[in-house]
């Protein structure tokens, strides 16, 4: 059996494939991805901050987020597992659609159900993200 930590690390590799069908297979059908309300990515893309369902999550990861970010570089700071929960600390660098650089720190809490992801809770420096995307303080 694959460990929860290995399942999540494999998920990150699969995310970078941008293959929606492969990404869907990582999640339970009713999976949820919950990000901070009003975060810059959700606002800029006019997208929800609480995705429900493997298909919606996969569509965002495989396509929609790439309308905003290109040349994405993820650097893991730490990956920690306890039972069916895996925590990933990372730094994301990318180029925004307008050509400006983007860099922010993230923490993701993955909860698994067997060998699939049931829930992701995403945390980030929302103020920094807003300034990088919009060049101003959050409203």
UniProtKB/TrEMBL annotation:
<dbReference type="Pfam" id="PF12680">
    <property type="entry name" value="SnoaL_2"/>
</dbReference>
<protein>
    <submittedName>
        <fullName>Nuclear transport factor 2 family protein</fullName>
    </submittedName>
</protein>
<feature type="domain" description="SnoaL-like">
    <location>
        <begin position="13"/>
        <end position="119"/>
    </location>
</feature>
<dbReference type="InterPro" id="IPR032710">
    <property type="entry name" value="NTF2-like_dom_sf"/>
</dbReference>
<dbReference type="InterPro" id="IPR037401">
    <property type="entry name" value="SnoaL-like"/>
</dbReference>
